[in-house]
Specification:
Length: 372
């Protein structure tokens, strides 16, 4: 049961309020997760939910001093150590999440836009998340330090999580030799995008594939994959070329485990409108255009199935929590909630629809929370 997992993984967290408290930390944490599952977003909403569901909650919690106020909830999550919460979140996902064979793990960042504090003079916080594309789960996240960027946060996230046997995809900003080394050392493979952050390498790979197209080299050198998808008036043609011939590449030894270079071209036709995009990648995978194409396409999962859902279903970009650790802690709780909703497969509605149903139907809420 979810409550047992919460006790197991979050029960040893340090209490930020000391001994002078009326409500147990685990009770508050459980109430907040239940409220978020059912569509609550603000601390006031969470208190209103808890008062409306007090009888149901007492079936799981003692609540010796009743329902905590929204002020108490806000103070707790402003003071709670976000690193400790994220560490336990990672452990919880490892225990209850379903890992798929040869999982594609997408790493990308997202800014919590309304977390900017003009009074305190602090910038909006930026979180880097790892998304398991096949399983549809957030594996974990970490905050980018002030006056830093994703390049420093990504290695920290890789060290936190178990990536063994996965294929890790990262946008161009994360294409750094130390990050490639971290991924290989974690017993995983990488597919890293090339752009202006590695201008010389990107230009060399681009010129190589331009030569390949002009000379029409044999399939012994280049592996090729093509897929066509037509849906709702949109035609999308995806092509991928991959080669294991990298002996010509200058300083290729900088990239630990490097085995192949790839070019991806996507042509999209919608009515009379046509667009085309060509991108280049380096990878520790052998030269398999099919495998690289799968990883490239899977990378969009973190945008479409995580970031977009957090903005649309959870209205994350409208969240104004910014006091102390509130924004970071509630970001972790939204990921926990999304994982619970994603793992519930009986209802075929959207995430927003599942949240509505959970709020209306206690039986379904228990199915989301406890898997029963």
């Amino acid at each position: 049961m979810a409550l047992q997992h919460i006790i197991e993984h979050f029960g040893d967290m340090d209490e930020p309020r000391g001994d002078n408290r009326r409500h147990e930390l685990l009770d508050i944490l459980f109430i907040v997760i239940c409220a978020l599952v059912c569509g609550a977003e603000k601390s006031e909403d969470i208190e209103t939910f808890a008062r409306g569901k007090e009888q149901w909650l007492r079936g799981y919690l003692e609540l010796a001093h009743g329902i905590p106020s929204h002020d108490t909830i806000a103070r707790v999550f402003a003071a709670l150590d976000p690193q400790a919460l994220n560490e336990r979140f990672h452990a919880w996902v490892s225990a209850v999440g379903e890992r798929r064979e040869r999982e594609i793990v997408n790493i990308d960042g997202k800014t919590l836009r309304r977390s900017y504090d003009s009074v305190g003079g602090t910038a909006a916080i930026h979180m880097v998340s790892a998304w398991a594309s096949k399983a549809g789960l957030t594996l974990g996240q970490t905050r980018v330090a002030q006056k830093s960027n994703e390049i420093t946060a990504i290695p920290e996230l890789i060290e936190m999580l178990d990536f063994g046997g996965s294929v890790v995809t990262i946008d161009a900003m994360g294409t750094q030799s130390n990050i490639a080394e971290k991924i290989v050392d974690a017993d995983a493979d990488y597919v890293l995008a090339l752009k202006d952050n590695q201008p010389a390498l990107a230009e060399d790979v681009r010129l190589y594939f331009e030569g390949v197209e002009q000379q029409q080299k044999s399939s012994e050198t280049i592996d090729y994959h093509r897929s066509v998808e037509k849906d709702h008036g949109r035609l999308e043609i995806r092509e991928c070329w991959s080669t294991g011939k990298i002996d010509w590449l200058d300083r290729s030894e900088r990239w630990k485990g490097l085995k192949s270079l790839s070019m991806s071209r996507t042509k999209r036709i919608i009515g009379d409108s046509e667009s085309e995009q060509t991108r280049y990648f380096i990878s520790s995978l052998p030269a398999s255009a099919d495998a690289v194409a799968e990883a490239i396409r899977g990378h969009w999962g973190i945008e479409n199935s995580l970031h977009w859902v957090l903005d649309v279903a959870f209205r994350e970009d409208e969240c104004r929590k910014r006091k102390d650790n509130s924004a970071e802690n509630f970001a972790a709780l939204r990921h926990i909630t999304l994982n619970l909703l994603k793992q519930e497969k009986s209802c075929k509605r959207s995430i927003a629809g599942k949240r509505l149903l959970a709020g209306w139907n206690e039986t379904y809420m228990e199915k989301v929370l406890f898997g029963i």
